[in-house]
Each structure stands twice: as structure tokens, then as C-alpha cells.
Amino acid sequence: xxxxxRCLSCGKVISDKWNEFNERIEEGxxxxxxxxxxxxxxxxxxxxxxxxxxxxxxxxxxxxT
Length: 65
Fold this sequence. Notes:
By secondary structure, this protein is mostly helical. It has helices at residues 18-26, 31-37, 43-51, 56-60. Helices cover 46% and strands 0% of the residues.
């Protein structure tokens, strides 16, 4: 699904950083450095970014009946 708007543990707004994170990772930058640059210092926020699987494309293929 989509990235949560806020961190599930600390409540920090994180969704605004998701697109930049993905773009920079695809360009080959180190994940740790990107997370540091984006200001994601707490392990709870970092965990969401490192473990999130974007499945919206797969879900969007199915119709609701």
C-alpha cells in the first residue's frame, strides 16, 4: 500500500520524504546517507522507509465487486 503519512511510533510526518528517498536510492545513493540527509534520525522512522513495500500497483489491478 502507500507509505503512512506519519511514523507509526513517534508521529513524525514522513510521507513527504518518500518520493525523494526512492529517487535517490534508484540513482544508487547509500540508503543510510539519504535517510540522514532527509532528517530521519529515529530508528522507528528509518525502519518504515527501509521495510516498506509499495504494492499499490498490484492492488490497483483488482476490481472491487
